[in-house]
Amino acid sequence: MVNVRRERYREETKTEAKRIALEQLAELGIAGISVNAIAKRMGVTGPALYRYFKGRDDLLNDLVRDAWHDLADTVEASVEASSGASPPDRVRAFAEAFRSWAVTQPHRYLLLFGTPLPGYHAPQDTILTAHRTMSALLGVLPHEGSATTGPSTLDAQLVGWAGARGEGDVPPAVLLTGVRAFTRLHGVLSLEVSGQFGPMGIDPALLYRAEVESLILGDSGVRGSTRLSGPG
Amino acid sequence: MVNVRRERYREETKTEAKRIALEQLAELGIAGISVNAIAKRMGVTGPALYRYFKGRDDLLNDLVRDAWHDLADTVEASVEASSGASPPDRVRAFAEAFRSWAVTQPHRYLLLFGTPLPGYHAPQDTILTAHRTMSALLGVLPHEGSATTGPSTLDAQLVGWAGARGEGDVPPAVLLTGVRAFTRLHGVLSLEVSGQFGPMGIDPALLYRAEVESLILGDSGVRGSTRLSGPG
DNA sequence: TCACTGTTGTTAGAAGTTCTAACACAAGTT
DNA sequence: AACTTGTGTTAGAACTTCTAACAACAGTGA
To answer: Considering only residues 115 to 144 of chain A, which have any Cβ-Cβ distance to chain B shorter than 8 Å?
Structure first.
């Protein structure tokens, strides 16, 4: 037997350290995560934690990895729970799960989508986990009737991206819809969690839902006739 | 005469410090901005800079303020330069100026829209400057034909927001279009500058332009028939 | 010209941080 | 029982922000 007890103890220690790190993240932001302070709160001295994490960056890396996993699990669960519903309702389910995850732990959302460490390149497994969230979204989009559009550069890139991860059967139009849906949802969420709507007196939840409905119904006719394609 | 020479010297020193800080920001990220290191590169000792900035946060504050001003100046200039063009072309001009500013100095974009300092609340003047960018966008949207939609909560908030800064004559439908246009553009830019598209092999410029065109032409018909409002 | 005031710089130092090195001890294996 | 491995310790280097005390300077007024 190969150290099963020590192995478990090691995992528990790492988990506790990450738990405290998340608390610090919520309270003081990413800059407030201190290996020393975590150790102190665990009742050990600072250098002890270096047996578990190669350094601060390694710890942050783990937090990022965990967050991607957690986000993917959340939206996947939501999508699966809505498996019997209509595509619009499934998109709504995805969007609500996504927003819910983000706003209940904004610091974690910012850990994923906020300011990256310069020179940081996510490892392959983290990238794959991040794409799980994207796949969940693609999964609820209707695939039928997707015209094979002209071979644009963007389409080619989208197909290449999907193909590289075993989703080669998704038509480029669906991929584009998915990616754009994601960027739009993120656009609202990103501004919300970084507090940009606060001083504007606007409820981001309403804006978010308006965006979701516009995503579902299309852009014209939902709200107002103010179209940018007016005469001119 | 009240120290006009000293005053100028003081301004020059602050400007140089901020210039070096921006270099550090670009190279090492926000965490890499060090008062000590800036001072060293200016040929003075660390504490000398505390005559000019109350602390590191004060310096960062100035960087944020400058960035908002610079962004607003840029998009305003672009919008004014396109004053004779059609609304769609003016929206394109705004969007291109916005993206150009962001991608040529991603670290600065992240300084504005990335991870905020916890507990940080932007001072009023910074908020007003931030809204200048939003106003530039609203300025190129056509106002005619904006139906007075039902008095929704979101509309009321939008009108309140606009009214609080002397833009009470802009119809809520236009305000909503503007805010949503902004969140969409930001959605793409945010993911681009934080490097999310890198491992996907997708050119963010194409995605951005697709989003701009969809903003202008509306969502249906631009690309593919994959609509979320299918039967179901 | 001399003295005064305010600004800008210095060094010293406190209290943090990350992280390495060297050592002590306990736990698991042979 | 001896050996190896894992986990914790203290000491310390090299940083960081930031304050305090002091020195030197510029500009003003008598």
So the answer is: 115-118, 121-122, 127, 130, 141-144
